[in-house]
Design a protein that fits this description.
The two termini are 30 Å apart. Helix content is 71%, strand content 0%.
């Protein structure tokens, strides 16, 4: 029998598609952006029910630790992996994982999300051990896939992403082990360090794409280049993150506030150099610029929290987790979803509203607890986040699950 050629038109009755050949599995951004969007809604939705008393938390791990893990290592980690495995194909010309391999990697990620809720086995912390093993497997496979592409192409310019992802993997495993050992304070310090490591990734990616996207989107003759500042910022950020990690886990007398403030000034300086008022008319640009601006502002607030009791560290950090990581994620996911499926870089008005809602959610969560009370601020921020990511899913689910409009593979 002649094998079926899936690229040829066939009568509906004999058209057969294997699951691994669905458009969803063509490139890593598709399942991971979809999964991250769903997790953003489901996890924050559940978190909101817990905050309002409409759901009871029954697991041994505190709900705050589950929430922190899922938003940092589940949500942000998935987007980082999906973006890098997709972008690396463009950088290197080496085919990224797709089909059954991508499907298997995604299933491991999904299994890790579900494993938190394993109960009734009679084995203490069996759910956390399962999550630890699954997360280690997932990170290791993803880093290996990325390394394989970069090494094959000898793409040294992007080797820096490998130690960043490896650091996130290590912090993830340490975090889960501390949770198993019931060392909650150190666990929270580790996840906070992971947020700062994620800002390293944001800083590197922003340096690559914001000037390029701005020049292209506004039709400028050339993009703003900040080569020396980029290098100073990278090394300063590494030092500040290391100093914070040391201060929280080893030497409490060390104050990392001054180092974080210095990094904040560098980020704000770069943001100012990249700024162009014309981008305020382009949602796919202003969303990225404001999310990057929120990084500098957030680091200023984090630094001040070490010197003033009025500014709480956790509130300040949420300017980064929501305003920078959350907003940049929803903006980049939207842009990449359009660009890598052959669609024009124009979005419906409600997606601009979604971007704005995430920014407002960051302001409410980080600046208003002192004014309107913590619980009201947390709940209002969660609602704004939920609406924003529901709008993202409405817009991008059809894009992520269908073939490119130009007929190319990807």
């Amino acid at each position: 029998m002649r094998p079926i050629n899936l690229t040829e038109p066939m009568p509906e009755k004999v058209r057969v598609y294997q699951v691994s050949q669905w458009p969803l599995w063509m490139l890593a951004f598709r399942p991971y952006f979809l999964g991250a969007g769903l997790l953003a809604v489901l996890s924050i939705g559940y978190w909101l029910l817990i905050l309002t008393g409409h759901a009871r938390w029954r697991l041994t791990i505190p709900a705050t630790l589950w929430h922190a893990h899922e938003m940092m290592f589940g949500f942000a980690g998935a987007v980082a992996v999906g973006f890098l495995l997709t972008a690396a194909q463009t950088w290197t010309g080496v085919a990224s994982i797709s089909g059954s391999k991508l499907m298997l990697l995604t299933l491991v990620w999904l299994a890790a999300r579900a494993a938190f809720f394993i109960t009734g086995t009679g084995i203490e912390n069996v759910n956390l051990y399962a999550v630890l093993l699954l997360q280690l497997l997932w990170w290791s496979a993803a880093i290996t896939a990325l390394a394989n592409m970069l090494l094959k192409a000898n793409n040294k310019n992007n080797y820096q992403f490998l130690p960043i992802l490896s650091a996130l993997c290590a912090l993830n495993i340490i975090y889960l082990w501390l949770a198993i050992e019931q060392n909650m304070l150190l666990a929270l310090a580790v996840v906070d360090t992971a947020v700062l490591v994620m800002t390293l990734l944001v800083g590197v990616v922003a340096g690559r794409v914001l000037p390029f996207f701005t020049a292209r989107g506004l039709g400028l003759a050339e993009q703003v280049r900040t080569g020396r500042l980029d290098k100073v910022l990278l090394y300063s950020s590494l030092f500040a993150v290391a100093l914070y990690f040391i201060s929280q886990l080893f030497i409490p007398s060390v104050n990392p506030g001054w180092a974080l403030a210095a990094v904040a000034v560098l980020h704000l300086s770069r943001s100012l150099l990249w700024w162009n008022n014309k981008m305020l008319k382009v949602p796919l640009l202003w969303s990225l610029h404001f999310s990057y601006l929120a990084l500098g502002v957030g680091l200023v607030l984090v630094a001040l929290s070490f010197y003033s009791p009025v500014i709480l560290f956790k509130d300040a950090l949420h300017m980064i987790t929501i305003g920078t990581i959350g907003m940049m994620i929803v903006a980049m996911m939207t842009r990449v979803s359009h660009g890598h499926t052959g669609r024009p870089l124009t979005i419906p008005h409600f997606m601009a509203v979604a971007f704005a809602l995430v920014l407002v959610a960051a302001i409410v969560r980080s600046l208003l607890p002192f004014v309107i009370g913590p619980h009201i601020a947390w709940q209002l921020s969660a609602v704004l986040w939920l609406v924003a990511f529901l709008l993202f899913l409405i817009h991008c689910i059809p894009i992520l699950t269908r073939r490119r409009v130009d007929g190319r593979r990807g």
